[in-house]
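Researcher: Next entry in the queue.
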Amino acid sequence: MYLKKSSNDDLAQNFFQRDYQDRGMLKWGGFYLSDHTSALAKMHAAEKIEQPLPEQTAADVSERLAAAWQSHRPVHLQLNVMDNNQTLTVIDGVVTGVFDDQIMLQLASGAFRPLQLATIRCVGTAKKAP
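Model: Structure for this entry, 130 residues:
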């Protein structure tokens, strides 16, 4: 009795068409640590595009920043600066100092960032304290 030999290509093609189900990226999920998962979540949250808000006057921006500085309230700033994706840059933080035409903002990471008042487009209330 002779068995019909099929080529390896036919055998592989039949296997992938009928039997094998690829789980896609699901199969790599076990390799992620909790640090990776939280970093990915932060990255995806940062990728959300915010629509441009109406530009506030320099006096209104200064008044809102001064009020936030005195009350130690977190602020949400939209800058007149485009990032790499050609969207307006947004920053959340707490105003920790004011000097001439600059403010010092403490970010959620604990880092400090100086900002020129002229680059700030709009000042709002941050949704979450950093």
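Model: The longest helix spans residues 58-71.
Researcher: Noted, moving on.
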